[in-house]
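Long-time lurker. I teach an intro course on protein structure, and each term I like to show students one example going from raw sequence to a predicted 3D structure in token notation. This year I'd like something fresh instead of my usual example. Would anyone be willing to generate the tokens for the chain below so I can use it in lecture? Attribution to the forum is fine with me.
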Amino acid sequence: MTQTLNELLAHELSERGFKPRNGAILPTHLIERLKIRDVTLAPFSASTSQLWAKLTDDEDTALFLKLAVRRLTNPFSAERDRLIWIGRFFDAPEVVDYWAGEEHEVIVTTWRTGKTVKDCVLEGADAEGAIRRAGRFLRELHASPAVSACPFHRDLPVLHADATLLLDMERPWEGAVPSEFEETFGKSPAEYLAPLLADFPENDRTTLVHGEANLANFLIGDDGGFSVLDTGRLGRGDRHLDLGLAIWEMEVMSVPHLVAPFLDEYDRDAIDDNRLEYFRRLAGYFWHT
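-- Reply from a regular --
Happy to contribute to a lecture. Here you go:
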């Protein structure tokens, strides 16, 4: 299985232009520890920056593997730490293993069955109901008293630092090209970002935020439960960060009619329209870079 899994991952990585210098993609001891019997690349593993796969161990337990070239922002070690922490308060995948080499890193978690809110919207499977579930979950997350014990941060200084770093990073493997950004906004990433860094609302870190609240990161389980995924940017921050990104995605998906039920379920009285617009614009920058 070691050779088969490594050969499969190596082939997929080479298709994305990445060829590791140090031989095997995963160390033998990691695969032996996981006792992998079968591997299937997940149908949603179309990202050019990551590989996602479903693993099955020798006890027929399903696991989820994510592999990525090591990054300066949002490494999988951050997701590992946050998944372990948030799992004490909300339903989230459990961390099974983590490994980092010189060039890439891997995180393995338990597998969750169900449909993401994004899939529900795309498939028309009670899209409004799914959106309302997302709004209700964010309301509960943002109201959580666990924020007082949260050791992670996703407030404006962190966001601005990450946004600035993206301007300077060489990202040939991530597939982000400035021309696509300019085609969308009519300006370069630097021109778009400059006013957001120059004029911004007062910093707020009083809320527990997901940090990357796109609709694919909320899962409605086959059992009707609700799970939070991809928590690598979770931390103390401004509630409007999550709301702005979710709204931006609905607009990109051409379902703006779902914004109203989403905000109704969340609680419009808790929303500051000016702050929401700022974070919606900031979400546009991160979405397209």
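Some talking points for your students: The longest strand covers residues 50-57. Residues 170-177 have pLDDT under 50 and may be disordered.
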